[in-house]
């Protein structure tokens, strides 16, 4: 028992120290967000913007998401939706909005099927290969995101700094149904959103980012995307390698509706960490260490407290350490939620429901976080929007299966 006690106390000491440091970090994030909230929206010259939106199928709240893109309060932007096929269901919906908002310049790019990269990346490569000369800023959004009306203006404004390589927002998941799986994936995602603010932890999120065209061309996009499954992590690396800043803008935090069952939730979480492992392995190892440490403090403390209480061991040690960690974690979560609430345009009841679960079910969320990280440790295959990919390396992607392939096989068999 002495060896186990020493090992636990050593890990618990590290866990409590890390928890304290992250609480301080969250406080610093609060200061950053407060500064951004107090910033005034002074008039500025609106440089011409091309807003790219890759699409595949009709997402949850798709029409609301499209309306938010067509109604941006920005004087000089045009939309470019990219689909793999004219038969994609999203195309017909987009065409309806083109008729509804004729004053907003909009085109639909048909990219065709990807061969050696992710379909989304292929869409972006095709759409950004020939950018009109008059465009000064490129912006990117996902079709499952619903930005506010000033989203584009606030993001473009911050690209003006010469040291800024890219400006990014992030997503805040909004469960369609109050299920355990939806709440767990929302809690996992929203915890990551709380890390953004300080430059050290900023990663580009592909559903909400912008970059000056001259930076985009200097960093050799879209050629740098060739063979890639992931778009945004590669952008993060390229920007940092060039000595430029990845700037997070809280006003560009966007709502994204989710509705997962447990298998889909675990597949989604594994896919996120899988891409991190392939493109930024250091961050993956950091995520594994953090998830393991959190579970030592929650699950490990609970198991040891019960076991030692039954066997007459020092059960108060894990009980007190676990309780302190939980209290500190709850304080951090509450502070993060209050910090980010002013930037979110979602119903108050929905926000309270998600954040309440995140605060009180933190030990449960931690278990699924660890499962997601560990499950991404092995293998080279993932399924994304029905397409199965084999990823041999950052620039080596092979498409093994498409839903269309199954349909053709059945037709040939008939």
TrEMBL record:
Descriptive protein name: N-glycosyltransferase
Principal location: membrane
Pathway(s) annotated for this protein in UniProt: Lipid metabolism; sphingolipid metabolism; Sphingolipid metabolism
Superkingdom of source: Bacteria
GO MF annotation terms: ceramide glucosyltransferase activity
Any single biological process term in GO: glucosylceramide biosynthetic process
Transmembrane annotation, as ranges: 6-27, 283-309, 315-335
Topology in membrane: Multi-pass membrane protein
Protein's UniProt keywords contain Cytoplasm: no
One Pfam match: Glyco_tranf_2_3
Compartments, record wording: Membrane
PANTHER family on file: CERAMIDE GLUCOSYLTRANSFERASE
Keyword vocabulary terms for this entry: Glycosyltransferase, Membrane, Transferase, Transmembrane, Transmembrane helix
GO cellular component: membrane
């Amino acid at each position: 028992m002495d060896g186990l006690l020493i090992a636990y106390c050593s890990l618990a000491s590290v866990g409590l120290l890390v928890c304290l440091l992250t609480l301080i970090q969250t406080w610093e994030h609060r200061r950053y967000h407060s500064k951004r909230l107090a910033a005034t929206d002074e008039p500025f010259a609106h440089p011409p913007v091309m807003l790219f939106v890759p699409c595949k199928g009709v997402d949850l709240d798709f029409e609301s998401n499209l309306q938010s893109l067509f109604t941006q309060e920005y004087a000089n932007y045009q939309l470019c939706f990219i689909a793999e096929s004219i038969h994609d269901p999203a195309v017909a919906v987009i065409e309806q909005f083109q008729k509804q908002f004729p004053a907003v310049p909009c085109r639909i790019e048909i990219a065709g099927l990807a061969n050696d990269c992710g379909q989304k990346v292929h869409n972006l490569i095709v759409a950004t290969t020939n950018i009109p000369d008059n465009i000064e800023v490129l912006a990117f959004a996902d079709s499952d995101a619903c930005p506010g009306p000033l989203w584009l203006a606030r993001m473009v404004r911050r690209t003006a700094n010469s040291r800024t390589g890219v400006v990014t927002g992030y997503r805040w998941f909004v469960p369609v149904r109050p299920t355990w799986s939806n709440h767990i994936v929302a809690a996992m995602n929203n915890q990551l959103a709380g890390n953004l603010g300080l430059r050290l932890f900023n990663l580009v999120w592909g559903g909400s980012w912008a970059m000056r065209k001259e930076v985009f061309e200097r960093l050799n996009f879209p050629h740098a995307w060739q063979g890639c499954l992931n778009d945004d992590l590669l952008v993060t690396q390229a920007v940092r390698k060039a000595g430029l800043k990845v700037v997070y803008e809280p006003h560009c935090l966007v709502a994204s509706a989710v509705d997962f069952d447990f298998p889909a939730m675990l597949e989604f979480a594994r896919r996120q960490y899988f891409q991190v492992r392939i493109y930024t392995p250091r961050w993956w190892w950091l995520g594994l260490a953090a998830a393991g440490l959190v579970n030592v403090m929650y699950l490990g403390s609970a198991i040891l407290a019960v076991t030692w209480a039954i066997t007459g061991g020092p059960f108060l040690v894990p009980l007190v350490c676990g309780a302190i960690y939980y209290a500190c974690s709850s304080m951090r979560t509450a502070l993060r939620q209050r910090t980010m609430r002013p930037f979110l345009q979602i119903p108050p009841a929905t926000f309270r429901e998600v954040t309440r679960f995140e605060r009180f079910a933190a030990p449960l969320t931690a278990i699924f976080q660890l499962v997601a990280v560990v499950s991404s440790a092995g293998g080279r295959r993932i399924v994304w929007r029905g397409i199965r990919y084999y990823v041999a390396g950052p620039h080596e992607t092979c498409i093994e299966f498409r839903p269309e392939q199954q349909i053709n096989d059945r037709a040939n068999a008939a």
